[in-house]
Amino acid sequence: MNKDSNEKIISLVKGLIAYYNKPEIKKEMTENKDECIKKTLDVHGDFFDKYPTLFHMISNNPYNFEMDRLVEMLNLKNKVKNKEVTYKDASVGLGYKYYDEFVKPGLDDKN
After folding, report:
1. Residue 1 falls within a domain, yes or no?
2. Both 21 and 47 in a single domain?
3. What is the pTM of this model?
4. What is the pLDDT of residues 67-108, one digit of tens each?
5. Quick check: 70 and 10 in contact, CB under 8 A?
6. Quick one: pLDDT at residue 4?
7. How many domains is the chain partitioned into structurally?
8. For 32, what's the count of Cα atoms within 13 Å in the CB-facing half-sphere?
């Protein structure tokens, strides 16, 4: 398991997003996204090695990445680590939150 601090992870994420926001990279993303992401590995390979899932989440849509959601998850991870909340309670809490955010509105529309 990686032991980088929240600040380090956020810094890496911001660096990757800043890379994708360079005008020449934005252009390349519109012309050949897959090839651009492959080239990004040359520049941000260390990020990919440590956090491959996060790398792909950002790379697939770097212009709409939800930084607030990442910060929330990292803070919750720390609370579990510091035994301020159990893993189960954290998981259930997120489940309810995301159910209310993503599922419930669709159900309300059908009623």
Report:
1. no
2. yes
3. 0.81
4. 999 999 999 999 999 999 999 999 999 998 888 888 988 886
5. yes
6. 84
7. 2
8. 5
pLDDT at 82: 95
- What is the number of other CB atoms lying within 10 angstroms of the CB of residue 34? 9
Structural domain range at position 38: 6-65
Same domain, 57 and 85: no
Please name the amino acid found at residue 24: E
Q: In terms of Cα–Cα distance, which of 74, 44, 76, 42 is closest to 62?
A: 44
Q: How far apart are CA 7 and CA 75, in angstroms?
A: 10
Q: Is the same domain home to 54 and 90?
A: no
Q: Looking at the structure, do residues 106 and 82 belong to the same domain, yes or no? A: yes
Residue 28 shares a structural domain with residue 42: yes
In angstroms, the CA 94 to CA 69 distance is: 11
| 28 has pLDDT over 80 | yes
Question: Does residue 21 share a domain with residue 48?
Answer: yes
CB-based contact 106:100 (threshold 8 Å):
no
**pLDDT 10s digits, 5-20:** 999 999 999 999 999 9
End-to-end CA distance of the chain: 44
Same domain flag for 60 and 86: no
